[in-house]
Amino acid sequence: RGLDLQAAPAAARGDRSMKRLLIVEDEERIRETLADFFATQEFVVSTAADLATARTVLARGDVAAIVLDLL
Question: 19 with 45: CB under 8 angstroms?
Fold first, then answer.
């Protein structure tokens, strides 16, 4: 599915006080469930289905934490 970004309006304005999280998960249902949950907890969530997409997101340098599927 490629790069799937969800961002709160404050993030679009460049608000650095927002909590930024990257979720790396190949299963779309799990990825979307996690993204939805963390968004309700006031995180700005970026998602990636694979390593290449995760690297693209990380290259921007605005991720504070990563939830990673290791298996």
Answer: no
Instruction: Give me the helices (H) in the chain, please.
Output: 9-12, 28-40, 51-59
Predicted structure pTM score: 0.74
Q: Kindly give the confidence (pLDDT) of every residue in the chain, 71 residues in length, as a single tens digit, with 9 standing for 90 and above.
A: 445 555 444 444 455 567 999 999 999 999 999 999 999 999 999 999 999 999 999 999 889 999 998 87
On whether the CB atoms of residues 46 and 65 are closer than 8 A, the answer is no
> What is the Rg, in whole angstroms, of the alpha carbon atoms belonging to the chain?
11
Return the structure tokens found at 44.
Answer: 């700005």
Distance CA 27, CA 35 (A): 12
